[in-house]
Amino acid sequence: MMDRIDLALLRALGRDARLPVSRMAEEIGLSQSACTRRIQALEASGWIAGYAARFGLRAIGFRVTALVDITLSTQSEEELARFERAVAVIPGVVECMLVSGSHDYRLKIVCRDLDDYERIHREHLGRLPCVTTINSSFVLRAIPTRSEAEALFGPA
Fold this sequence. Notes:
- By secondary structure, this protein is an alpha+beta fold.
- It folds into 2 domains: about 5-55, Winged helix-like DNA-binding domain superfamily/Winged helix DNA-binding domain (Arc Repressor Mutant, subunit A); about 65-140, Alpha-Beta Plaits, CATH 3.30.70.920.
- Helices cover about 40% and strands about 20% of the residues.
């Protein structure tokens, strides 16, 4: 069961996953070894699924984010699996979600510019299995919000 110390650890890691354990332990009021054990337990239980860097996409040349809604002609397990395998190898696809509503999947694709998106569409999206419609929207501006930890567990 999650307690206030586990929540504090999740919030701290959500703010800065590179925060040294010694500093995190000090902030939370634990010994360094107890803090390390707690983090390992959170990892083992699946509460922490991994660690990753967030990239400044514009700074590294990816200036366009497309949200792509896809409708399939069938929803058989075999065809869903075939579609998902095909999507998994498309360059630039950073998220693929099976969704409810009028479409079956939503993809989040990052690319360098509209020409790059057009190439991805022509070479990959247009060749996906069982697709009947593809609707693309482009992000004009992403609005910064709270960290995932704050959104899920509230502020410290």
